[in-house]
Amino acid sequence: MRTAIIGGGVAGLAAAYELEKARAAGAAIEYTLYEATPRLGGVVASEIVDGAVLERGPDSFLSEKPAAAELCRELGLGSELLGSNDADRKTCIVVRNRLIPLPDGLMFLVPTKLIPTALTPLFSPMTKARMALELLHPPRPSNDEDESVASLVERHFGAEAVDRLADPLLSGIYGGDAAQLSARTVLPRLVEMEAEFGSLTRGMLAAHRKMRAAAAHGNGRPANQRPGPRSIFTTLRGGLQQMVDALAARIDPAAARLSAPVNSLSKSTGGWSVRAGGETKLYHSVIAATPAWAAAALLSGVDAELAEELGAIPYSSSITVNLIYNEANLGPLPEGFGFLVPASEGRAMLACTFVHRKFLGRTPRGKAVLRAFLGGMKNEALLDKSDAALIAAVRQELGEILSRTGLARGIEPEFAQVSRWRRAMAQYAVGHRQRQQRIAERVARLDGLRLAGNAYDGIGVSDCIRLGRQAARELMAAGQTAQA
Question: How far from each other are the two terminal CA atoms of the chain, in whole angstroms?
Fold first, then answer.
């Protein structure tokens, strides 16, 4: 079986690794990994500067999604896995230059504790009253209709909860707009809770009771065998680049073609023709591990309807700005991991992470690393700004928001780094689930084609790894069936 993998990001690398494992075990498999840029890893990119680990793209993966941690252990990186410092986890929302902590008992977007919600200055009295009355919300009959996250949250908690809670939280994850994101895809548990309980608060409290009961009984395990609490995020001590490097070292060096954009893709009775670098090769199967918009361009001559569906998946761009400071000059930062900035604040920044607090042991003693996020669906124009202009904007906004630190006096960072990721973050817009069904139906008609990446069934690092490995396994299984 000969397979072409188009795209050398995490999904494509995971697919190549899976094929290489089978080849090394004796399977009759050949593969080529085509990557348009000079490096593998896509948006996963990190480096160490003066002893500090700096992530240019994602800095971690969700611990509850096992695919990334499992792969790291397979690659011999298990001892390098590092959980987030959840003992100091606290997130603030910027409201008129004030940092207001999210109230205790807030479970994602749902308040579950009366007193902290009543006392927080994050919400107006009217919104607090709306949150209290939400307990009386009647069940909503389940149907196939989708709606935006903003619509769902506003129906339950009001417009202010969208502005100060849903939008900043989701822009930090998706770089998107709560008014566009699909509730059924992004927040499926809340949609299910609404159908069963009506009130999201009552639904979340019921779920929390089940979790506590399961934890109390240790899921049937003796007390001395019960695992401790798991950190929310997991990363690698030397940066996620460690995983990329380990994957690249495991695949056949002759199979990876860098700076080799695929110019065309066509389907015939003999298989799939892939043209890249002036050369055309024939393969039995293809894994398109590119962004959906790039896959659409390649597949337009193969299946116009599939290409149209893929091209309709929206994407946002993002910018990260890493700043290293001397803590003695910086002064004390507020508690927690950092803060989120609602779009209504009219700022360039979407969020800022205090990296040296989120993951301990990756920053030298006496240094602080601040990582700002910019761009998103509402501010794509920032991508055209110079590095100097972006750094200046971040420093000014940090000085205004963190006014009790040396940032307000304009202290210079010891190091500054800007990374741009154009059209990198897929947006699960209203109707995404139905679109995915239509895409799956079209793909099923094309023997030997699989899609992988963040546009389909999860945007995180673990999701991309899972989908890449799954695509490779499915094609190998189909190949064995055909030979039988």
Answer: 13
- CB neighbour list of residue 483: distance below 8 Å, 6 or more residues apart: none
Spatial strand order in the sheet of 262-268 = 262-268, 271-276, 279-283
CA distance 339 to 224: 37
Q: Which residues of 298-317 are buried (b: 16+ CB within 10 A; e: fewer)?
A: bbbebbeebbebbbebbbbb
Domains of the chain: residue spans and CATH: 2-43+242-314+428-483 (3.50.50.60), 104-225 (1.10.3110.10), 316-426 (3.90.660.20)
In the predicted model, what is the mean pLDDT of residues 95-101?
93
Q: How far apart are CA 265 and CA 282, in angstroms?
A: 10
pLDDT, tens only, 4-55: 999 999 999 999 999 999 999 999 999 999 999 999 999 999 999 999 999 9
The tally of CA atoms less than 13 A away on the side-chain side of residue 390 is 27
pLDDT of residue 226: 46
pTM to 2 decimals?
A: 0.93
Average pLDDT score over residue span 383-411: 95
CB 377 within 8 A of CB 180: yes
Q: What is the mean pLDDT of the chain?
A: 93
CA–CA gap between residue 468 and residue 472 (Å, rounded): 7
The strand pairing partners of 367, in sequence order, are 326
State pLDDT tens for residues 448-461: 999 999 999 999 99
Angle between helix 241-250 and helix 67-74 axes, rounded to 10 deg: 50
**Interatomic CA distance for residues 210 and 142, integer angstroms:** 23
Determine the 3-state secondary structure of 39 from DSSP.
Answer: coil
- Beta-strand pair 81-83/256-257: unpaired
Separation CA 105–CA 53 (nearest Å): 32
Query: What is the mean pLDDT of the segment spanning 256-284?
Result: 94
Give which of 46, 50, 73 is closest to 59, Cα–Cα.
46
Cα 208-173-141 angle, rounded to 5 deg:
50
Query: How many Cα neighbours within 13 Å face the side chain of 315?
Result: 18
Tell me how long the chain is.
484
pLDDT digits (tens, 9 = 90+) for 311-348: 999 999 999 999 999 999 999 999 999 999 999 999 99
Q: Under DSSP, is residue 18 helix (H, G, I), strand (E, B) or coil?
A: helix
| Residue 139 DSSP class | P
The percentage of the chain sitting over the pLDDT mark of 90, rounded to a whole number, equals: 83
Largest CA-CA distance found in the chain, in angstroms, rounded:
72
If 0-12 CB within 10 Å is exposed, 13-18 middle and 19+ buried, where does residue 383 land?
Answer: middle
* DSSP label at residue 332: P
Banded model confidence at residue 391, pLDDT cuts 50, 70, 90? very high
